[in-house]
Amino acid sequence: GEVSHSRSTAMGVRGSRSEDAGAVEWMVEEPSTTSYEEALSAYQVGNYGEAITILEEEVDSAVLDDTTAYVYHLASAYLFTGNKGKALKITSAYCGTRNSEKFEDYLLLRGRLYLEALDFTAAAQQYKTYIELVSAPEDKQLGYYFYGLALLQQGKTEEGERAAAQAVDIDADREITRAARKLHQQYINDRP
Asked: For residue 2, what pLDDT band results from cuts at 50, 70 and 90?
């Protein structure tokens, strides 16, 4: 029977007929990343539905060097198409790996999804790990803001206020500073 090129490429092998009538010669190929690159291109221009289709139907994540990047793009594409539940399900099933080029982004995505699902403990853990890994002031500030928000939502007022205050003190991004100051002030004003 016929074997589709994309299926045989994903399997890492290709059969070709030799001159002998029933002989098949198998050649090992490097796993093709063409479909993955197509999915990333679709994702980057905002064609999230197309990216999802390619990622799910044509890309074998097991042959990719960076599974975390694959899961990040798939889950965030679902989020951008309005399917938060599917995005959360995908990210909940996969923790990610620190050696991924997308690991920090993946932590932010997981944190956001957990916040929206009202799982503030899981969200706080994602942001805490994010803060530990990033070095750029604007990244630290963003992490502290969301970490503070998750802690405050858990009722951990002192810790949450400290994290929000750290986001204000870093002052790397005016919008984040303003939001962190507002968050910090809101909980100070809400005290009995």
From this structure: very low
Crossing angle for the helix pair 67-80 and 84-92, to the nearest 10 degrees: 160
Which residues lie below 8 Å from residue 10, measured CB to CB, with a gap of 6+? 31, 32, 35, 58, 59, 60, 63
DSSP 8-state secondary structure symbol assigned to residue 45 = T
d(CA 32, CA 92): 28
Cα–Cα distance for residue pair 130/113, rounded to 1 Å: 15
Grouping H, G, I as helix, E, B as strand and the rest as coil, residue 148 is: helix
SS3 sequence, 3-36?
CCHHHHHHHCEEEEECCCCCCEEEEECCCCCHHH
Q: What is the DSSP letter of 93?
A: T
Q: Could you tell me the pTM of the whole model?
A: 0.76
- Specify whether the backbone of 172 is left (phi greater than 0), alpha (psi in -120 to 50) or beta: alpha
Summarised one tens digit per residue, pLDDT across range 54-101 is: 999 888 888 888 999 999 999 999 999 999 999 999 999 888 888 889
- Give per-residue pLDDT as tens, 107-161: 999 999 999 999 999 999 999 999 999 999 999 999 999 999 999 999 998 899 9
